[in-house]
Automatic annotation (TrEMBL):
One Pfam assignment: Phytase
Record PROSITE patterns: BP_PHYTASE (PS51662)
Domain BPP residues, every copy: 1-261, 263-580
Official protein name in the record: Phytase
Transmembrane segments: none
């Protein structure tokens, strides 16, 4: 056994807690290697062949009698970039095991390997994203992906595939920080300390996470070597630093921290569902698609229509295959809703309400425009009162004003009357009406969900029923609201934009939270998850095959797979109802 193979053997044994054992020969012969503990008795090995750009993944299971029995999980060529480093990430939030491929020319990918203990036959690309052009190494700390940028910096990215792609600077080049040479390896110890290896002259930097960020706690010059390129953690608590090109290596002992890192609390996994359909991406990148609605065909549900506002150009209409069938280019629409054969949307160009007629076969056409005296018109929803056969439009502005209009047919068109004005303290947007009980729900983005009487003759005073500061699962902004009944039980859906999740509340007092869930990738259909959601919608009516019990519709603020304009995701409602606890 050569020196490098022995070193890697010790590294794998130390990082997983397993007894020392020889590496499979095919792993030891490849230059770039990583390991990940799958449990107390299982290990995942990854190796990258820099000559052929072949990625190799093996799994060591308890049933394996020797390293040669390691099970090949997957191997294949990486054709999209030259890989500088690979890092494995096990998400506590969604039960996914993925691998990051870090390229040295500004690009990176996250591949899904396993979901809910099921190994994919072929890895699925969850997202592609930009990293520094001179990226050299990576490591994972909790839900942070740490990336070294040559001799310049270390950056932290969020490792969750649906999270914001922003980054934070955690270490910088001298004189702004301690970095002096090119960083060739990163490693995170079990106690949370971050180790960064400078290549030449070799030097090890040790960082510790504090309340204010990563702080340099120690530097270790490494004498008698011109260059070192890799860090490995050994079973005896020591480190092995090595040069794979020359086979040179040495062991280091780190100074124990004066104060032990407190154990990190494990976060409970949030329930996950997957979309069964997505719409064609918006033609324009950036913040475009905002709010969905659905028109249900009364006789043939498979001919129903999905509607979305594109807040740059107008109203988008899709069929039940997610294909765009109509564009009504009326201007900067924000929110949309519909009742029967009438749809309404808030038009930001002139702070008006734009109405649309809907034909019997689901074709939308521009109808009347209703002027308002609102400044910065924003959210909108509709309601229908069967007692007096009236249709209402509720529209709000960023100032917190809410106006209630009644609309009715008038000489081949529509006429609207302002019947009352309501108010919430700060900016609202999403709203929804329970037609059955004539209740209006309004989301005050940073603070609460409000309840008003929806009737035109009712008062104008509302009541806070769900507050952000009383529900840690609800993280502002409150963007979208939706309402439906299931087996007679009223359900209120709330978009919790701040943590990319969705909450279901009992749709009546005491407003108990019944479920929290996220929308993750659908492996079989190749549909990415949903995040940074604005508007939502729900229907318990059949929309045809795949959605016979209804659907939950969300705007996807980050459409990753592939990276494209924003769109809508549709989740079969029955998959969500399985998660809802009974009151």
């Amino acid at each position: 056994m050569n020196k490098l193979t022995l070193a890697l053997t010790l590294w794998l044994a130390g990082s997983s807690g397993l007894q020392a054992q020889a590496l499979p020969e095919q792993v030891s012969q490849l230059p770039l290697k990583r390991s990940h503990a799958l449990g107390s008795e299982q290990q995942l090995w990854g190796a990258m062949d820099g000559d052929t750009q072949q990625l190799h993944l093996w799994r060591q299971t308890p049933a394996a009698r020797s390293p040669a029995d390691a099970q090949l999980v997957w191997q294949g060529e990486v054709t999209t970039r030259v890989v500088e480093d690979i890092c494995f990430y096990q998400s506590e939030q969604n039960g996914q095991l993925s691998v990051f491929l870090i390229g040295g020319r500004g690009g990176a990918e996250q591949w899904l390997l396993r979901q809910d203990q099921h190994w994919l036959s072929t890895p699925m690309v969850l997202r592609e994203f930009s990293v520094p052009y001179d990226a050299t190494a990576c490591a994972l700390h909790e839900n942070q992906l740490l990336i070294a940028e040559g001799d310049q910096a270390i950056w932290a990215y969020h490792a969750e595939p649906e999270a914001d792609q922003g980054r934070d600077l955690i270490a910088a080049k001298y004189p702004f920080g301690a970095i002096k040479g090119e960083l060739k390896a990163l490693e995170v110890l079990a106690d949370g300390r971050l180790l960064a290896l400078e290549e030449a002259p070799p030097r090890l930097l040790e960082y510790r996470v504090t309340e204010t960020g990563y702080q340099l706690t120690q530097t270790y010059p490494i004498d008698k070597f011109e260059e070192l390129q890799d860090i490995r953690v050994l079973a005896n608590g020591k480190l092995l630093v090595s040069n794979e090109d020359t086979g040179a290596s040495t062991q280091l002992s780190l100074t124990k921290p004066a104060q032990a890192q407190p154990p990190r609390a494990t976060k409970a996994q949030i329930a996950q569902v997957a979309a069964g359909l997505q719409t064609t991406p918006a033609s324009r990148r950036g913040d475009a698609i905002d709010d969905p609605a659905v028109w249900v065909h009364p006789l043939q549900p498979q001919l129903s229509r999905i509607v979305a506002t594109d807040k740059r150009i107008g109203l988008m209409v899709y069929d039940m295959q997610g294909q765009l069938v109509q564009e009504l280019l009326v201007g900067r629409l924000n929110n949309v809703d519909l009742r029967g054969q009438l749809a309404a949307a808030s038009l930001r160009n002139d702070n008006s309400i734009q109405l649309f007629d809907i034909s019997d076969d689901g074709e939308f056409s521009v109808a009347a425009n209703i002027a308002t005296d609102l400044n910065e018109i924003y959210g909108l929803c509709m309601g229908y009162n069967a007692a007096d056969n009236t249709t209402s439009v509720y529209v709000n502005s960023k100032s917190g004003r809410i106006q209630h209009y009644q609309v009715q047919p008038h000489q081949q068109g529509w006429r609207a009357s302002l019947v009352r004005t309501m108010q919430v303290p700060t900016q609202p947007e999403g709203c929804v009406v329970d037609d059955q009980t004539q209740r209006l729900f309004v989301g005050e983005e940073d603070h609460a969900v409000w309840l008003f009487d929806a009737a035109a003759t009712a008062g104008t005073t509302g009541q806070r029923i769900i507050q952000v500061d009383q529900h840690p699962e609800l993280v502002d902004d409150i963007e979208g609201l939706a309402f439906t009944y299931h087996d007679g039980q009223p359900l209120l859906f709330v978009s919790s934009q701040g943590n990319d999740s969705y909450l279901v509340f009992e749709g009546q007092a005491p407003w108990r939270m019944l479920s929290q869930f996220r929308i993750r990738a659908n492996v079989e259909l190749g549909i990415d998850g949903a995040s940074e959601t604005d508007g939502i919608e729900v229907t318990s009516l059949s929309l045809g095959e795949g959605f016979k019990e209804g659907a939950f519709l969300v705007q996807d603020g980050r459409n990753w797979q592939p990276e494209a304009g924003q769109n809508l995701k549709l989740v079969p409602l029955q998959e969500i109802l399985k998660l809802v606890t009974q009151p």
